[in-house]
Amino acid sequence: MSSEPHIVVVGSANIDLTTFTDEFPRPGETIFGREFHLGFGGKGANQAVAARLCGARVSMVARVGDDLFGPATIQNFTARGIDTNHVRITKGVSSGVAPIFVDSAGQNRILVVKGANDALLPADVDAAEDLLRSADCIVMQLEIPLETVYYTLRLAREHGIRTILNPAPGQRLDLAELADADYVVPNETEAEALSGIHVTNLHEARSCAVDLLRNGLRRVIVTLGANGALLANEETLEHIQPYRVDAVDTTGAGDAFIGSFAYFLASGYSETESIERANVYAALSTLGVGTQSSFVTAERFEAAWAGR
Ligand code: RIB
């Protein structure tokens, strides 16, 4: 097992503005929310932080705005021991922000304004090529331009570097481009956006995964929230059981899954065990409020893993 695998995240960083509420205002109406939480987020940044907390060496390739959130985001990465040599500030653009609404069942609704994340272009990937070529695993999501995602996948494939793509937020994609990814890891909504197949349960997730493999994807993991995850590749279609908890806030649980999965896989665990472990890591993150702020340390994870 490699003790400190190097994971590079090419992706987004946002500021999360989380409001806890069960009601939503109608046009022209003002109502009270229950509670508010300001935190560092963004799918890319969250996945980087999860991998780092698990024990990986992590580098971020990203863009932030030249507002007060930009330097604070870089400072947050640095404080967490994440390499920011390829995190650039884009002039005249806001940082990515995400107003998030969480109800009393812990379910979230997220609105993302991409801001500077949209300025992360293939030229930034070229500038980080040496770093990318030194990675054990490259992790991506879809809060940056698609051309950058496809470009990075091609570059990684050319150099034999393992990639994990989280196709979030969900959208229709060119599946031929995704054939370059080693792992595509959607949740149910994202799986549906990719395949056009409705996914609300394990049975439908199976049909969807089979369809995606038939369309050229190499390995698909559909995360199923409280129902665990489904692994699909050429040899197997395997349901991996969830780790059950009473969730308080599920925001960022998918990112906790991806970041920790990247770490476990790059550390040398099998696909199945990496998913089992990532299920536990992600479930633990739902016990706290916020995204990165709810991600647990390697020690906390190991205690839960040993006692499961
Ligand atoms: O997956 C959760 C994340 O989605 C939040 O941190 C928010 O910033 C959006 O990117």
Descriptive notes:
With 308 residues, the protein is α/β, with parallel strands linked by helices. The chain has one domain: UDP-N-acetylmuramoyl-L-alanine:D-glutamate ligase (3-Layer(aba) Sandwich), CATH 3.40.1190.20. Helix content is 36%, strand content 22%. It contains eleven helices and 13 strands. The protein has helices spanning 43-54, 69-79, 122-127, 129-133, 146-158, 175-178, 188-195, 202-214, 253-267, 271-285, 298-306; strands at residues 6-10, 14-20, 35-41, 57-65, 83-90, 96-102, 108-110, 137-140, 162-165, 183-184, 220-223, 229-232, 237-240. The chain has a six-stranded parallel sheet, sandwiched between helices. Strand 11 (220-223) and strand 12 form a beta hairpin. Helix 1 packs across helix 9 (253-267) and helix 9 packs antiparallel against helix 10. The longest helix has 15 residues, at 253-267. The chain is globular, with a radius of gyration of 18 Å. The protein starts with 5 loop residues before the first strand and ends with a helix. The model has no long low-confidence stretch (mean pLDDT 96). The site of alpha-D-ribofuranose has 15 residues, from strand 2, helix 1 and helix 9.
